[in-house]
Specification:
about 130 residues; Rossmann fold; 5 strands; 5 helices; single chain; globular; alpha/beta; 5-stranded parallel beta sheet
C-alpha cells in the first residue's frame, strides 16, 4: 500500500522538491499552498501523513493543525511541522497542539523522509488504541 503524504507550504520550490522526492520514494503526494487549501485537501485526499509549514497565507499552520485535530478524528494523521520558526515557543505550542514531529528549515530532505517513515511505522500501533 502506498501511503499518501500531504505537503503544505506556500513556497512552491519546497513543495516541488518534496513532492518529487516523495513520488520517487514510492509515496502518493498531494499538495497545498495555503491553510485553506490544506484543510480542503485533508477532507478530499484523506492523507496518511501531513507535512505542514507554519507561516502561510489565508490560514497559518497553527490554525490548520488545530482544525485537523478537532475536525478530522476519523483516523490518526501524523503531522510533521517543517518551519523556519525556530523559537522554543513555536515548538512547544505545536507539541501542545498535538503535532507529532518538528523540523526547522532549512532541513535536509532525508530528515523529512526519516520523520515520515517513523510516523508511518507508528500507524499500526495507533490503530490499536
Amino acid at each position: 500500500m502506498a501511503y499518501k503524504i500531504l505537503v503544505v507550504d506556500d513556497d512552491k520550490d519546497i513543495v516541488d522538491i518534496l513532492q518529487n522526492r516523495l513520488v520517487r520514494e514510492g509515496y502518493l503526494a498531494a499538495v497545498a499552498y495555503d491553510g485553506e487549501e490544506a484543510l480542503q485537501k485533508v477532507k478530499e485526499e484523506n492523507p496518511d501523513v501531513i507535512i505542514l509549514d507554519l507561516m502561510m497565507p489565508k490560514r497559518n499552520g497553527f490554525e490548520v493543525l488545530k482544525e485537523v485535530r478537532e475536525k478530522f478524528k476519523d483516523k490518526w494523521r501524523p503531522i510533521i511541522i517543517v518551519s523556519a520558526q525556530d523559537e522554543l515557543e513555536s515548538l512547544e505550542k505545536c507539541y501542545d497542539m498535538q503535532a507529532d514531529h518538528y523540523l526547522t528549515k532549512p532541513c535536509d530532505i532525508n530528515k523529512v523522509l526519516r520523520g515520515i517513515r517513523t510516523m508511518i511505522s507508528l500507524i499500526p500501533a495507533r490503530k490499536e488504541e
